[in-house]
Amino acid sequence: MRNSIGTNVVLTLFGESHGPAVGAVIDGLAAGIPVDQDFIASQLSKRRPKGPVDTARREKDQYQILSGVFNGRTTGAPLCIIIPNEDVRSADYEATKSLARPSHADYVAQVKYGGFQDYRGGGHFSGRVTAAIVAAGAVAIKALEAKGIRIGTHILECGGVRDTDFNDLGSPESADLLESFVKAVNEKDFPVVEDIEEAITARILEAKSDSDSIGGMIQTAVTGLEPGLGEPWFDSLEGVLSKALFSIGGIKGVEFGSGFGFARMKGSEANDSFCMIDGKVRSLTNHNGGINGGISNGMPVVFNCAVKPTPSIAKEQRTVDFLKGQDAPLCLKGRHDPAIVRRICIVVSSLVAIVLCDVLASSRGTDYLK
Amino acid sequence: MRNSIGTNVVLTLFGESHGPAVGAVIDGLAAGIPVDQDFIASQLSKRRPKGPVDTARREKDQYQILSGVFNGRTTGAPLCIIIPNEDVRSADYEATKSLARPSHADYVAQVKYGGFQDYRGGGHFSGRVTAAIVAAGAVAIKALEAKGIRIGTHILECGGVRDTDFNDLGSPESADLLESFVKAVNEKDFPVVEDIEEAITARILEAKSDSDSIGGMIQTAVTGLEPGLGEPWFDSLEGVLSKALFSIGGIKGVEFGSGFGFARMKGSEANDSFCMIDGKVRSLTNHNGGINGGISNGMPVVFNCAVKPTPSIAKEQRTVDFLKGQDAPLCLKGRHDPAIVRRICIVVSSLVAIVLCDVLASSRGTDYLK
Amino acid sequence: MRNSIGTNVVLTLFGESHGPAVGAVIDGLAAGIPVDQDFIASQLSKRRPKGPVDTARREKDQYQILSGVFNGRTTGAPLCIIIPNEDVRSADYEATKSLARPSHADYVAQVKYGGFQDYRGGGHFSGRVTAAIVAAGAVAIKALEAKGIRIGTHILECGGVRDTDFNDLGSPESADLLESFVKAVNEKDFPVVEDIEEAITARILEAKSDSDSIGGMIQTAVTGLEPGLGEPWFDSLEGVLSKALFSIGGIKGVEFGSGFGFARMKGSEANDSFCMIDGKVRSLTNHNGGINGGISNGMPVVFNCAVKPTPSIAKEQRTVDFLKGQDAPLCLKGRHDPAIVRRICIVVSSLVAIVLCDVLASSRGTDYLK
Amino acid sequence: MRNSIGTNVVLTLFGESHGPAVGAVIDGLAAGIPVDQDFIASQLSKRRPKGPVDTARREKDQYQILSGVFNGRTTGAPLCIIIPNEDVRSADYEATKSLARPSHADYVAQVKYGGFQDYRGGGHFSGRVTAAIVAAGAVAIKALEAKGIRIGTHILECGGVRDTDFNDLGSPESADLLESFVKAVNEKDFPVVEDIEEAITARILEAKSDSDSIGGMIQTAVTGLEPGLGEPWFDSLEGVLSKALFSIGGIKGVEFGSGFGFARMKGSEANDSFCMIDGKVRSLTNHNGGINGGISNGMPVVFNCAVKPTPSIAKEQRTVDFLKGQDAPLCLKGRHDPAIVRRICIVVSSLVAIVLCDVLASSRGTDYLK
């Protein structure tokens, strides 16, 4: 399956950083879903580098829908959306094309593709490809919202600054608050709940001025998901989500609910007791992040992703020239993000939306999202 | 795909805790792989409950190969292996069948399967099904070892007691030491590197005597994996491994290399500088856990899994009776593990072996493992 | 995917002719489907060799359900059913194991599996494996019948003797007659509409007495299928059915509706004009076999399969010894069917039922068949 | 999987007849395959309507490669190729949009997509989408030719005029002749071996002048395919090819080798005796079309497809208006092919090439085609 994910709603990605375009095909969406072109544009805008903490590359993201939409709605046929590449400065990469940038995919690409890979700007490994995820995901997000399902991703921690932890809102009483936070972060270009944009920005700029980069942690909540979604083996909700998430460059850890915190808990602390509330089964806490046995239990699905520091830094580094087979110093030019925690949030929400459309179509049939 | 995983080597699981048998079909293995029946038995033995820290259920695990093996070797046809269930005490579950055990799959199974699920002992959600993974995985492990690939999983932390962290052995100089640790934990029934079995056992028994359970963290290293394995989107090595891992009941977090530690690192600390050693490209550190851009880079693949405390505890808990639709207290009978960190290690290694066979077959062709 | 077929309802086959058992895992069936064990037995009985026109091998087909059924209904977990092998005379195959039986899979198996294949009785290529299809298919057939969908397969032609052609019953007025014929052939051990059992049997026995075998043509009708099932590219109804059908040994041609007859028709003859009947869209003729653009149109789905003569014949044949790499004469022992047209009918209906369950689950959601 | 086909080399199609473009993504191709842009153009030219027997719609087929090619070779990343639509006359379809053209997909599309489908020119069901198959297939054809594998498709019969039957060239002695015929038909715009272009053209024009259309039969041979490719269940070579073939609009029957002819043969006639020729296993005849047990046997793979008459005819027809729910006469405007046998040949060869790339990658690994 390689560059495709999904069983009934399938996303296929294509494109390289410096090629004609990046794009996505999303197949299996129900016919009749409204396609809100302004929303697609505004979602792309959230991903776009813009402020001082982002790369200096400026993308217009003039997307084009090639198929699958007619009279403003999905047709049921595969939807292909492309985003032509602009502001490409390939020359930046020519001089260093045989130098394996540390923690980048240059070396593995050389091994895997034998020198035929498009090395400019990371080629198909580039974060640029995530623009296509955001564009396709915008359609999925709207389809889910029509079913009362909402996805929000925020920066949980960066540079030592922490935002509200959605896991602290696990009780049924906190449901409305969590919902409002999810909506709030979706409205913002800098997705945080607390008033910490400046503090985080300062830490990122500090790293940048030091020719360095920093990592962080992001957190996603999905509200409104009905119980019973996912499969025990192997299409568990955790499994399909994590597979998607780990495809996003820079994500090196995924934990659901209390995640690694479980390692130091007792069963009596960790178990989420069930209770009846307004005739519905709920749990008093949500340590399991809304998932039991791989299947949604009706509580909000909450998970965290670890984001590594951008590997492209201006500091001189040690590496190898893989064509010459010898050690070599590396001084990176090009334009890079000193941190990607801000821009990655919308990518995660978009990809999660597509995965959830697939999960719903698999459980409820294609037409469920119509 | 539900209960199957893999593209070219496909594992399918079936069976319930209290049904006639659990089993696995593994399809796509090369013909001619030696099937070592003693090794299968010894692997099952490592998973089997035996000591005071395990459940009192005693399984003989008399497995039977129904197909795919002829004259002691794989035939290339699907290999079906079953393990009949014994020592089943279904009556334990009759009284509580409509009580949703907290953090268990009872409630979601009721929603998803509408009351038709086999509720006895967790049915198809039971950890009992992992016996089939271990049996099938034993064939995969031997096939990989013939190619110089070795997988070891140990308890990294339990009850506050920590073992050697394989991430601290990330330099090329530590390669032999890591390899020896991997071999060592595979020889042991209680898979740890340091002399900490007693300390961990004490903490588990402490929890047990308190009618409680505890969680932990396990760590896996894969050595000998060549560079270039995995795909950028979406069949990244991290993606396919995490999807498999999250299917194992109790695993709620997966991180590769420094994982969540990346959140507090700078790029200059996190980047793994490449260097030439004996004519091969290696990295000076291995924060990325052997994976760049979703593809193996030739360094050991290292990842951690968070394991939640066994949800089945003897302490009285609060829950709901989902048939009556009302709150109810829960006093669990039955036989349960106060911690599953020991038994889960061999399951993880076995499942990882099967996934890696698939990755190798996908990259190198089916016959590569012959 | 190899030995599996399906997207949402997935069938996996395993087993060899002379191994411990053949079996099937069917995954993705809705929970709550009644499992009629007598019906499974009676379906297996229809496939079983019994009369003079079948092989002398006598199979008891004592099947066993290992998983996925609880209290007489499917649980939603994978259903594994096995049929132990009996009356195995492996010695028949020992002497000729390196002789490639013409039109059999012996030679290709040797090339593909390098000598590790189980050659006894054709191993995994054996028609014996179809017993597992019939057993699993019996569950699918009952699930479809509960939705008003009925599948019937009959011998359309054998030895020059022809049965009623369901394509001649393509008009809306013939619907009831077609339905009654479908029911009738499902009641019979020798599935034909007309009174031609004796005539066909005579031709088969004639071939047998001449140490030869004969082929034939079979025809399947599916009634009660709603319009809108299937996909334009590539999961067309014709595509998914033909892929399944061609897996059955001996089937070398598949045609829908007028099939190869279209080659000599004009558009004005071939087109099925639509009309309104009782408020429903129907077509006056059914040359397209109930499928337009790969999607069911509400008319009966009708298709024919060409069945080649059993390749195992007692006549001396010319072949090669692939181990010695030289020509060799072949005198086959063993017990063989002089024609498989009778026994293959129930296999086709069973496999079609499983494929249709998948198509329905993909379009309408898993729970549709509950 | 819907609009995708393949396991390791995956083709995804998108686009509508009157939308911005049709296109294909082909993923999983080895890196380093030369991409011959002139050859792509010349293949598209063969499919393009041009003479009097084709539709009057004139397409320029100015294709564009959006990704996956760098410096004239494949990169290993997904290759996306699009062909903008031109000469679109959507108004032709406006008046008849609720009239179900007989034997077309209009009615099933209405049922399946609930009125949201793009009905103009058949939308995603249009034969126009096959242009994308031809473009993507051109890359596959060149990759196969580099391995000595050649695919040729010719008109076997149309209007009662028959071409040379490749099945008559099944003996090892005829191998060179068959190879030369395959090459010959690939050079021609009107793909036939014998001097019958005029005769067939006359029959087609005769039908056209009668406001009618005619069907036909086409035949494909694949030479140079090594033995051992394909799987017993369910990815048999016959299965994967037929699934692809039946996706092409108008194909209603597929038979391998003697196909439906087997129905009237005896085993002693039908069996292909093996023999040693120049140290290789060959068969004296090739009734099985190069496939035994679903796996290639080293002989040419030969199969026929039945092509139905173009359903769009100028003659008045009877049909229904599915929005009004009543009978209605239909007088079609628009530009249509009186027969598609000529243009479909290159589509079949192209699609078969892509399927074979997948089969080879699955058996031999991705890099085999490099």
The SSE order of chain A reads: EEEHEEEEHHHEEHHEHEHEEEEEEEH
What oligomeric state best describes the polypeptide chains here? homotetramer
CATH class descriptor name of chain A: Alpha Beta
Put simply, the count of helices of chain A is 9
| Largest interface, chains and sizes | A-B, 104 and 104 residues
| Cα Rg of chain A | 21 Å
Shape of chain A: globular
CATH superfamily of chain A: Chorismate synthase AroC
Low-confidence spans of chain A: pLDDT under 50, at least 5 residues?
none
Helix content of chain A: 25-40%
Write down the overall mean pLDDT of chain A.
94
CATH architecture of chain A: 4-Layer Sandwich
How far the N terminus sits from the C terminus of chain A, by CA atoms, comes to: 26 Å
Q: Largest sheet of chain A, described in full?
A: 5 strands, antiparallel
**Order of neighbouring strands in the sheet with most strands of chain A:** 1-2-3-7-4
Ordered list of secondary-structure elements with their pairings:
The structure is a homotetramer of 370-residue chains.
Chain A: E1 4-5, E2 10-15, E3 21-27, H1 37-47, E4 64-67, E5 69-70, E6 73-74, E7 79-84, H2 91-94, H3 106-113, H4 130-145, E8 150-158, E9 161-162, H5 175-187, H6 197-209, E10 216-223, H7 237-246, E11 251-256, H8 267-270, E12 274-277, E13 280-283, E14 291-292, E15 295-296, E16 301-307, E17 317-321, E18 326-330, H9 341-364
